[in-house]
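Protocol step 4 of 6: record predicted structures for both targets in the notebook before any analysis. Target 1:
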Amino acid sequence: MYPLTFPSKVTLIKCLGLLFGLFSLSSCDEKIATQNTSDKESQKKIIQDYVYDCAQHHNYRFEMHQWQACLDKGLAKDSTIAYLWQQKAMPLFKARKYEAGMVFLDKAVHYDEKGYLAYRGFIKCIFAKTYKEAIKDFERIKALEGNSFVMDHTYNFHIALSYLQLNQFEKAEHLFKKDIEEQVKQWGEDGYHHLDLFYYGISLYEQQKWEEALIQFDKSLEKYPKFCEPMFYKALAMVQLEDYNDEEIATVFEKAKENKEAGNTINEDNAIYETYPYQIAK
């Protein structure tokens, strides 16, 4: 994840001498390769010195100034290292200072687009909640490398979740469905995540497709039996149907409440910093 820098102007000018037969092709290639290797090693050392041996000796929550000062020293030596910019941004997002953090994350994307574009899309989707911008980032990275993963979920998952939050429920439904089908085709029924099924169910629920939503909520519960959110929305969907009596509905509500109190909610790593869409409030 360390970017390669361009060869120096002197090296490139010498390489142009090839046009006039002044240098051999092999000698030019060797000089560029040697410089690029040297640059990478230099950047690795800066990261070691100013991230691992400096910034990470401080708690970024309670010693933000010291954390940032270490990274600034590293950037003073090489401002093109995307990882240093990302490390400056990360604690600001966790402190919910989204605009301040995005200034630095934009720098990381500038210097290493393929390395940090999906991460920026994730931050926009889950943290900053700028969903149209999140979709743009994920569509861009998909064009570069296809539908891969960031933070345990596919790019299409995050696009669909963004559509869900923009009240474009039909778009969300179609993309969740397609994404799950692709994962099943590649890895089988164990390939997709309980959160994929929950949000797919929500996209159906929001369109009042009660029976179809119930199917997805039940599938989500097969993977995470105590997951309170699909239980809660399952009960709400049951209310809309004539197939269930009050006692059956009350039982599901009570189980949802019990599991919520036990902490069996959305269990993503970043859920400690942000409330996820449709997560039941404390």
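Target 2:
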Amino acid sequence: MEWRDEGIVLGTRRHGETSAILEVMTRTHGRHLGLVRGGRSRKQQPVLQPGNRVDLLWRARLDEHLGVFQAEAIEMNAARLMDSAVAVYGLQTMAAHLRLLPERDAHGGLYEALAVMISHLGDPDAAGELVARFELLILDELGFGLDLSQCAATGTRQDLAYVSPKSGRAVSREAGAAWHDKMLALPAFLQRGSGLRADAAALEDAFRLSGFFFTRHVYEPRGLEPPDARAGFLAALRRHHAAMKAVAGEAGSGADA
């Protein structure tokens, strides 16, 4: 058995004295694991760092075997990502979400989304929005996608402000007014075609929204806890926004003086 594909490194673990088990998200073979002989060598270790894009050759005697990878670097992203806590935790969070999917199931759309996101994870403002959207993509791939296109009660596509915790469907501000305290907030930037950017409050609403449905449909039924990386990512985002607010406050004070 043999195939060649492109992949993004999600992680590695030691195997024996010199080898490593490589976990990658591939373009056409889904999330896949394989042995890299000599994967802990000085030559291979930099290539096998999370976030790097690699060219892969996989061989095994039988399809169900772990198999052996040969990996060559296409794009070395790891060093750049390690400079930012938001980027490191963001990548770890996305890797944890991808592990919720069956191994070796192809998800080409998720691979493309992951590739785009890695190129922007170094920008904390963009990273928050991108990871929030990625979580909705994962829910959709798991069969628990949210319908944010129109109001569940009236069919309108205007002024959508809530998501029903029961149905996972959007609700307009007017239709949901009477039950607003029981609804989940729908941040405007998540609506298709809005063109809006997210501020700190909108991101908090977005992750509260996706986290609710992850807990209900994925974590609790599987007896899992939310990944620690997700909490680390949200904490890193909050520190970034607090720092930006402090800088803006100092600038404002200087202008007043």
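Step 5 preliminary note on target 2. DSSP finds seven helices and eight strands in the chain. The chain has a mean pLDDT of 93.
Proceed to step 6 after PI sign-off.
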